[in-house]
Amino acid sequence: MQSSGDIEEHLADLMDSPGGKLLLEIRTHVVKRMPVMAVGFFVGLIIGYPLAAIGVEWLVSDASLAPDNTHIAVLSPVEFIAIKVRFAAALGILMVATMLVGDAASGVIRSSALRARLSEVDVKIPRPGRQLMLVMLSMPLLAAAGLYYAYGLLLPLLLEYLANDAASVGLLTEWRLSAYIGFIINMALACIIGFQTPLLTLLALRSGAVERSVLTNFRRHIWFASCIFGALLSPPDPLSLFLVAMPVILLFEAAMLCDKILPAANTAS
After folding, report:
1. Which sequence spans correspond to the domains of the chain?
2. Cβ pair 94, 100 in contact under 8 A
3. CB 27 within 8 A of CB 33
4. pLDDT confidence tier of residue 254, bands split at 50, 70 and 90
């Protein structure tokens, strides 16, 4: 059985190692940045609360989104307040996460402990190049395309379809406000994530992480997984599943075609 002196000696050796120094750097940096992150979170709360009210008013009153025979109800005033608080908290968390990502990116370059730790495992930090810039540019562009698809086509079609389906049996469509906002957000997030498919596919192929023959052999499984993705994030009807899953499948096939036609970029660039 080890004595307390041996344990203290092992802990001292661990803290003197590159990994221990890296953990100490992270802890010191997080503690030092705590006040700034707290300010960022409260700024997100202050900005997000009124923005949530404007956003809800815009979504509810937009005639191009919901059909005329659809009504949106608030069961209690607290429900509307809770929606604004959740949105404001999410914005505050996003601001803190953005700070942490920025700190991590700058820390990768400046941290001597991290460089020493990576040298131990023989890993080199990749230098920013043309491919990285293309990836960083493609992500928001694809996200914007997914958001445009969701708001311009998917949501109006689904909301009208659901309202007409209820009206066909003499029912009036009435959404609870939180359910209506949640439905819109879920569909928008599903499209934003789904529209990243070509980027993820090309990255997997061009980086060598996955062979093209593997994706070709598992094409049917990928199609099926896309349908499962659509079923989990959409209402339980065939039209919703089709409208969510089909763009993912088409974008995957477009990425496979681009990989076949376009030559691979020089990895040294």
Report:
1. 1-125, 128-269
2. no
3. no
4. very high
- Running DSSP on this structure, what letter comes out for residue 64? T
- Looking at residue 196, its pLDDT comes to 93
Taking the C-alpha atoms of residue 106 and residue 209, their distance in angstroms, rounded to an integer, is 27
Residue 258 contacts residue 198 (beta carbons within 8 Å): yes
Amino acid code (one letter) for 209: A
Tokens of 48: 């997000």
Q: DSSP characters for 251-262?
A: HHHHHHHHHHHS
Tell me the backbone φ, ψ of residue 234, rounded to 5 degrees: -125, 165
Please give the share of the chain, as a percent, with pLDDT higher than 70.
Answer: 77
176: three-class secondary structure by DSSP: strand
| CA–CA distance, 87 with 182 (Å, rounded to integer) | 11
Whole-angstrom Cα distance, residue 121 to residue 126? 15
Give the per-residue pLDDT at 170: 82
pLDDT at 42: 92
Helix (H, G, I), strand (E, B) or coil at 72: strand
Between the alpha carbon of residue 8 and those of residues 5, 11, 15, 23, the distances in Å are 5, 5, 10, 17
d(CA 54, CA 30): 34
Number of Cβ within a 10 Å radius of residue 210 = 13
pLDDT score, position 30: 74
11, pLDDT greater than 70: no
- Position 145 scores a pLDDT of 95
Q: Is the pLDDT of residue 129 over 70?
A: no
pLDDT tens digits, residue range 138-166? 899 999 999 999 998 999 988 888 888 88
Q: What are phi and psi of 68, to 5 degrees?
A: -65, -30
CA distance 214 to 147: 30
